[in-house]
Write a structure and sequence with these properties.
The chain has about 325 residues and is α+β, with helices and mostly antiparallel strands. Strands 1, 2, 3, 5, 6, 7 and 9 form a seven-stranded mixed β-sheet that branches. Strands 4-8-11-10 form a four-stranded antiparallel β-sheet. The longest helix has about 50 residues.
Length: about 325
């Protein structure tokens, strides 16, 4: 029995070594498992963060973004927005005078500040509101849509107009382009009845290139409402807005191509109170004093000195009047 003892001890040592190796192997496998889990979980977290930070994640529920992408897909802003090229694009325009900034009689120039509105139908900007959370109106950049080339013929200078970079588009394709414009236009001014004169200046809107077969112009409101509308006129200066007349006409340059134009006649009247107090009353006083001077005795020296004083008053008054009266080469005011 004694010789068997060493073999039992060796078997005990081998079994303890195997248990130690198996425990070490289990610890290593657990460590690799934890490391692999961390790598997989971290990669999934990074992918999730990247997905949330990308554009589809931010705009996934944005209805306006989906609608804008739907309308801009394949849209050509350089082509007139009609499906049938024989169809004419009807542009409705409207004009409201906000202020009379300056009337230059010498250079025959009128400067006004107007609110200009135009609308037309774009057949390529149509959508179903039920597909986009009942959105029936959308604002879009003006540079991304087709805009008619309607200008004012009487333009002589570019005014300081604010830039409105957006237009409204309805689900039926109606495009609304509203903007304020500072208009500097040529106008024939007649100052014969100064300071009780009434001036009539025209603003002619027409397409610079397109004929009536491509672009036609109409009024957004009735001529009666346009004539008497003074709701936005805020100027309380020298000039008063009476009314705005409208006139539609078709003309041709070479009897081949016909163009449509809409002409607005802005009728303004000068407020004469300032000139009545500072110009008419002093002149009437001088004339009355001149007539009274004839009743003085001829043999008295006071009559001559009185007439000389009146002549001096006339000279000074003429210098003041020359700065007040409008200077023009067409005619002289009756006053």
């Amino acid at each position: 029995m004694l010789p068997g003892l060493p073999s039992e001890r060796q078997e005990g040592h081998q079994s303890s070594r195997q248990r130690h190796r198996s425990a070490k192997t289990m610890r290593l496998s657990s460590g690799w498992t934890i490391l692999l889990y961390l790598l997989l979980h971290g990669g999934a977290t990074v992918c999730t963060v990247k997905k949330l930070g990308s554009n589809p994640g931010r705009f996934a529920n944005a209805t306006l973004v989906r609608l804008a992408e739907f309308l801009s897909a394949g849209y050509k802003k350089g082509v007139r927005p009609v499906k049938d090229w024989r169809t004419s694009t009807i542009v409705a325009i409207d004009l409201m005078v906000y202020s009379i900034l300056n009337v230059d009689e010498k250079n025959q120039v009128l400067t006004t500040y107007v609110w200009y509105r135009q609308s037309w139908t774009d057949e390529f900007l149509v959508w179903n509101p039920e597909d986009f959370d009942e959105v029936k109106q959308l604002s879009m950049p003006t540079a991304n849509v087709w805009v008619p080339d309607i200008l004012i013929n009487e333009f002589v200078d570019v005014g300081k107009s604010p830039d409105i970079p957006y237009v409204y588009v309805t689900h039926e394709g109606l495009v609304q382009n509203y903007k304020p414009i500072q208009v500097v236009t040529a106008c024939t001014l007649n100052i014969y009845n100064f300071p009780f004169d009434v001036q009539k200046c025209s603003l002619t809107f027409q397409s610079w290139l397109h004929t009536i077969d491509d672009i036609n112009i109409t009024l957004m409101r009735s001529p009666e409402k346009l004539r008497d509308d003074k709701s936005v006129f805020m100027n309380q200066g020298e000039w008063e807005l009476l009314h705005i007349l409208s006139n539609y006409k078709i003309f041709s340059v070479d009897n081949d191509d016909y163009y449509a134009e809409m002409k607005f006649h802005v009728v303004i009247r000068r407020r004469p109170l300032f000139y009545t107090v500072n110009l008419l009353l002093p002149s009437i006083f001088l004339m009355v004093m001149d007539i009274v001077g004839f009743y003085l005795p001829p043999d008295s020296g006071e009559r001559v000195s009185f007439k000389i004083t009146l002549l001096l008053g006339y000279s000074v008054f003429l210098i003041i009047v020359s700065d007040t009266l409008p200077a023009t080469a067409i005619g002289t005011p009756l006053i």
